[in-house]
Amino acid sequence: MSSASTAAKVKAPPSDTAAAGAGVRAVRRRKLLVLTAQLGLAGFIIGGWQLVTTWGWLDPFFFGQPSGIAQRLVDFFSKGDQATEFGSFWLQIETTLREAVFGFAVGASAGVVLGVLLGQNRFLADVLGPFIKIVNAVPRIVLGSIFVVAFGIGETPKVLLAAVLVFFIVFFNAFQGVREVDRNILDNARVLGASPLQIVRHVVLPSALTWITASLHTAFGFAIVGALVGEVLGAQAGLGLVIKTAQNQFDPNGVFATMFVIAVIVLLAEWLITKLERRLLSWRPPSPSESAVI
Amino acid sequence: MAARNDVATSPAAGRTVRDDARIEISGVTKRFLTPSGAAFTATREVDFTVEPGQFCAVVGPTGCGKSTTLSLVSGLDRPSEGSVRVGGREVNGITDGISFMFQADALLPWKTVLGNVAMGPVFRGVGKAKANASARDWLRRVGLAGFEDHHPHQLSGGMRKRVAMAAALINEPSILLMDEPFGALDVQTKAIMQNELLGLWEQLRPSVIFITHDLEEAVALADRVVVMTSGPGSVKAVYDIDLPRPRGSVQDIRFQPRFLELHHQIWSSLREEVERAYARTTGEKS
Ligand SMILES: Nc1ncnc2c1ncn2[C@@H]1O[C@H](COP(=O)(O)OP(=O)(O)O)[C@@H](O)[C@H]1O
Ligand SMILES: [Mg+2]
Prior knowledge:
The structure holds two protein chains of two kinds.
Chain A: H1 2-54, H2 60-63, H3 66-78, H4 89-120, H5 122-137, H6 143-151, H7 156-179, H8 183-191, H9 196-233, H10 239-248, H11 252-280, H12 288-292
Helix pairs in contact in A: 3-11, 4-5, 4-7, 4-9, 4-10, 6-7, 6-9, 7-9, 8-9, 9-10, 9-11, 10-11
Chain B: H1 2-9, E1 23-33, E2 39-50, E3 55-59, H2 66-74, E4 81-86, E5 89-90, E6 98-101, H3 113-123, H4 128-141, H5 157-169, E7 175-179, H6 187-204, E8 207-211, H7 215-221, E9 224-228, E10 235-240, H8 250-253, H9 257-285
Parallel strand pairs in B: 3-8, 3-9, 6-7, 7-8
Antiparallel strand pairs in B: 1-2, 1-4, 4-5, 9-10
Helix pairs in contact in B: 3-4, 3-5, 4-5, 5-6, 7-9
Bound molecules: adenosine-5'-diphosphate and magnesium ion.
């Protein structure tokens, strides 16, 4: 039995390295192919858009034009304080980002705290459950109007709207994460003498973290949406205001250029959150199949 | 309580058998409410006693209430009728000085091996440095020195069991509850773990309730084997195992005539229950 397995091991290396080398090459070739196809598709879409609007099949007055959008982007970042009517473009980005990040922080913390609390406490969950469902069923963007009426056109209503959008996503995930905590692990910690607080800190939170961090990806996108919608409803600065102004001036290129900037911001945030997730969940096995083997 | 702490902190507690480690289960019935609101009787009038420092194995068909009984001893759950006493005191809340070992891993996947073993002392308020030192010591005792910084998923099944064993014993429990701890292991690893468990038990002498579906394992390890009836479970028979201690290797003891005799005797009692439980499950399905 043991001699058979050592024999197999001795034989393995040469063919293994050869196979690995071929595998690496195949993977690299495939990556290159995918990248080429992606660039081709992007070129096709943007080029097609440019041509169709140049030939007059679509009116660039309504649909914008890639060259116009690029020009607008250059304007945004080169004109300094004159870039928009409300100051430099960087200021607009900063304003929206600040609102989104604050809203994200508030909403996510509230979501985690309440999610863990309700996930731990059956009674509280049963009592509050229907209320949360009702609030969740309300189209939350509409809350923006209420916040603007209540808090004026400063940054508060945007932060609140972003927070509300983030809250529900994080809350439901945290709640579910707490519910999924392994019973054996929980019992074991209790028998070892853990206090309720220690259980939350050592067992429940780390266990729910997988769920919570997964929700943060979508949540940040929603924080940006909340801030933008709030700005469109009424603001003194911000990317939402830039979009609204461009819309009022029949300037689709301005709208598209701002959209592009927002997309870049969200992708950057996504990248940061992925890094954070990797760090927080560094204990996780690389592949699920490995951990299943006993 | 005060006495317990004295014992737990004294360095050479080994071999001293502690009075507070007697487990008396008398007339215990446990009912569960099913989701439909009906009562389901899991155990009925369970009676048995584990003397301080005794190794007691419990065997019985699946679903007869073995795990339920353990949760009553640990204080995770309460009996519907009857009483569970540990060290002469009624169990009320989590019983002091108890450790658990489950079939499934109860290790925290996000903690390192060292962090997992150190949990027991940390939960009792021991300082981090002291807890870690003690955890290192215990990892050495179970042969896992050098694996402190690994995460559980990086270990084999047998190694994870050793970690669980160190984590269970680090508080020097007066009572060790084991629920099919080696059930998921391959035969060789299982034998190795059984030997190690016996070695550690002989040093620390906690009272043990060891649930297993493997009768050979029960006879090889235990001083006393409790056979339970098919559900609702009650105690069908109790057998004292008079094989001498130290038992030595569990692989070898299985060939001794006295072992075979006891095994045969208990199996004839257990078999009926297993068959009855099996007939019931197939009967319900058709
Ligand atoms: N919390 C519970 N609620 C309802 N029924 C339960 C609960 N725990 C166990 N049972 C039932 O009690 C019976 C005994 O369970 P258990 O003690 O786990 O059996 P064993 O460990 O002997 O296989 C089973 O039929 C099981 O379905
Ligand atoms: Mg069980």
